[in-house]
Amino acid sequence: MEPASETLELGVFGRPHGIQGAVSFWPHNARSVALATIKRGVRLASDGVRHPVRILSARPSGKSWVVTLHGAARREDVEALVGQPLFVDPALLPAIEDDDEFYYHEVIGASVETASGEPIGVVSDVFETSTDVLSVKRTAGGILDVPVVGAYVVRIDRVGRRVIVVDDVVSLLSLDEGT
Fold first, then answer.
1. CATH architecture of structural domain 8-92
2. All structural domains of the chain with their residue ranges
3. pTM of this prediction?
4. Which fold has domain 104-173?
5. Burial letters for 89-119: b for 16+ Cβ neighbours within 10 Å, e otherwise?
């Protein structure tokens, strides 16, 4: 359950790190560095209660981060955070300067159409392999996984919430005969 529609789940708190109140944090996007600049958020406890969080420091540690929070000086102070999600205001995320980059929440729900205007479907999810992959719920039924590479994706319009793909994307990526 997300605490408010204007927030974005950034990731989940993991186990305590050391004895001085630090905690591991697992972002949903392992490549994201957004946590380095975000200083506040909301955690959702298992009982559904929202708790404001002030982040004092955050540093990468492999695929996770080590985070220190205001009011957490001992290991016992963060043990209850394990598994709790951290939500942030999307406006706090660092601005994206490169047209080839996007935040996952910007494309989930975006319409997908070919360069010639034929509707393909709607982005239902994004997952990461060696590249980002858009999982598209097709208008014609089924799911089409589209790697975000120039051979398939022409442009991502983050503001207009549209993904433009090459005209023959369905025949290029479909594993089923005749689709």
1. Beta Barrel (2.40)
2. 8-92, 104-173
3. 0.72
4. SH3 type barrels. (2.30.30)
5. eeeebeeeeeeeebbbebbeebbbbbeeeee
Kindly state the tokens that stand for 99: 């047209």
Two tokens, residue 33: 């560095």
> Which DSSP state fits 96?
P
Taking only the tens of pLDDT, the chain with its 179 residues reads 344 457 888 899 999 999 999 999 999 887 788 888 899 888 877 788 888 999 999 999 998 999 999 999 999 999 989 999 999 988 888 888 887 788 888 899 999 999 999 999 999 999 888 889 999 999 999 999 999 999 999 999 988 999 999 999 888 887 654 44
For residue 126, give both structure tokens: 């994004």
Query: CB pairs under 8 A, 24+ apart, for 128-135?
Result: 128/29, 128/30, 128/31, 132/104, 134/107, 134/163
Per the listing, tokens 């220190």 go with: 68
Among candidate residues 70, 46, 75, the one with its CA nearest the CA of residue 58? 70
Six token digits for residue 176: 């089923």
